[in-house]
Each structure stands twice: as C-alpha cells, then as structure tokens.
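BUG-159 | component: ligand-complex export | severity: low

The export step for tetrahydrodeoxyuridine jobs runs without errors, but we want the raw record kept on the ticket for reference. Input record follows.
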Amino acid sequence: MKQNNTFIYETFSSLNELEESDRMLVEKAMESSKRAYAPYSGFHVGACLRLEDGSMVCGNNQENASYPQGLCAERVALFSASANHPDQTITALALTSKDSASLLSPCGACRQVLLEYEQKQGQPIRVLMASASGKVLVVQSAQNLLPFCFSKENLNTEQ
Ligand code: THU
C-alpha cells in the first residue's frame, strides 16, 4: 500500500511580513545568536521560544574544546524552558544565525528534542526558520520536521 505524507509551510521574504509576535521572536533569536559561545565553528546560532503566557526563553549554541560536549541553540533554549517553566506550553520556536545567508534549519538531534516536548504537551510547536537577512520559513508543527520519529511509544516492548 502506497501512502502519501504532505504538510503546509509558509515563506516570507522579510520580517515585516510576519505578525508582530512572530517578528519579535525572530528578532530575539537574532539578538541571542550574538551572545553565542562559538569560538570553534565561528557559527553563531540563536533560538527563542514563545510560551503560552507570552513570555520568551532564548538560547544560543555553547561550544567546547572537547567538541562533542557543545550544544545547539535550540536545545539550550528548550532545556532551559523545560527546566524553568515545566508546566507552560511552548507555542513557537524561532531560530536564526547572524552568520547564515540561508534559512537556518534545526539539526536532527534538535528536531528529536523539539518533538519530545510537542508530544509531551499535546499541542503543536510552530517553528520559524530565519536567515540573517530576514527570510523566514514557518512550519505549523515540529512533527512536520521529523516524520516516522522515534518516540516513547517505541519504548513499549510488549508485543
Ligand atoms: N548549531 C546550532 O546551534 N543549531 C543548529 O540548528 C545547527 C548547528 C550549532 C552547533 C555548532 O555549535 C555550530 O552551530 C556549527 O555546527
């Protein structure tokens, strides 16, 4: 049986085309990217989450001389939100880099972590991926970025 999987995404050529709360989120992510600790890659990434009460939680990439110990901006922001506001629903995540001419897309590990929180809260997390020049691509759910994901259901070993 062949099946099809499609999803809708939106593109914007400038931040001015976004509604104000989304524009603020991307701007905060951009500000956050300027505070990244990225002496090894020189690639500065910022992420900013919107919580249900309207507040924002930012994160940026944190690198280490022992390279694998570093962490992406998205996971710094997501873990900070979960650690400090565990009962608040995350409604959106914006990410960007002051160094990226193209839209910044979350890595596979960050998609997995994002999806964990989306599934935990039972509400979609919109993802806004922006370039340094202000182009933006928006998906309505983290699920769109990781079909056929590994999740807690896979840990149920009963046949
Ligand atoms: N990085 C992020 O922070 N987020 C992404 O979505 C992609 C990559 C970081 C990891 C590393 O510090 C640097 O960018 C270069 O890969």
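Assignee comment: Attached the raw record above. The pocket of tetrahydrodeoxyuridine is lined by residues 38, 41, 43, 45, 61, 63, 70, 72-74, 104, 106-107, 110 (CB under 6 Å).
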